[in-house]
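Question (not urgent): is this output format expected?
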Amino acid sequence: MKHTPFDAFPQRQTTRGLRCVLVFATLALCAGCHKPAAPPPAATAEVTVMKVEPRDTAVDFEFTAQTQSSREVEIRARVDGFLDKRVYTEGQLVHTGQTLFLMDPKPFEAALQTAKGQLAQQQARLYVTKANLDRVIPLAAQNALSKKDLDDATGNEKSALAAVVAAQGQVQTAELNLSYTTIKSPLNGLSSFARQQDGSYVTAGSGGLLTYVYQLDPMWVNFSISENELLKTRDEIAKGRLKFPGDNDFTVTVVLADGTEFPDKGHINFTNPAFSTETGTFLVRASFANAKGILRPGQFVRARVSGAVRPNAILVPQRSVLQGAKSHFVWVVDDESKAHQRVVEVGEWHGDDWFVTQGLKPGERIVVDGALRVTADTPLKIVASPAAANAAIGVPAEESTSSDARASSTIATN
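Got this back:
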């Protein structure tokens, strides 16, 4: 039986497969002769630390506030009549006694003339009755006239005198009404726009509003304190965590909308004893000297109230406090330069720092920069803070602060 070339193919294929198996086995044995390389040792985290040192710390309280004129006067018509002319420039400062409006005086001049005429009549009547009484008195003394004649003459004289007094009052009233046609400013202040135009008929009372004048110096700044804030403050004072100045003599600073501070400081001059039933807050008012008129009524500003102190307060940088799953914590460094996680209770912010109310003791060291790289119970490499290093070589504090900010930003990014 003859074999074709295809009969030898399965034998050659089997031989080739055995060779491959031997090659792979040899490579596996060679690989087993070498041990895997050990991972490089973890780098020691470089951190900056600070020592916890309690100290009395001045604190400020900020509130949204609004300015108010200390005297906001409604300029109203006091008599009925036609408005002749507005003689002031709307929106400009006006002075005490400056004329603002003129009303048509002619009807009031006529009323005054009539009152003066009635007064003259009553004075003439008084003259006659008095002369008559002067004649009756001696005749009655001689029993030439009866007692009734004397009484009649006396009564007529007194009645005429009363009529003169009443007529004098009518004259004064007419003079006052005439004077009310010239409407003047009762104070120095900023004028508002005119509510009535020239030629309008105005009436005394609710329909006689002409304009407003706002006194600018002093200026009031009003802000409100909520019931929750008040109760929290009382609790902190009772626990000794907060102390107010004597006689509650706080200093108030106004921060304008562009972030600049009003140059003059103010003081609280009124606190409303009752809470508002609508907002649940009570009003606090501070007074500011405003001779240059920088503050205007109705401005929204920030009121910074200074004077309170937190005794023996613990302040730590905000970047040293981390947020855990359930609470805030810091890394506390022991004498062997190892870090241990410590849960802390934090209060309010103070600039770039944070008040810690519970969890830290005086003299302990905590990690400030590099906290994100710390592992529990692992030795740390403690380095000088950028601020301390810059101070040692004479770098200004502004650049030192910028260095701290850049370092903190780098740590957070990594």
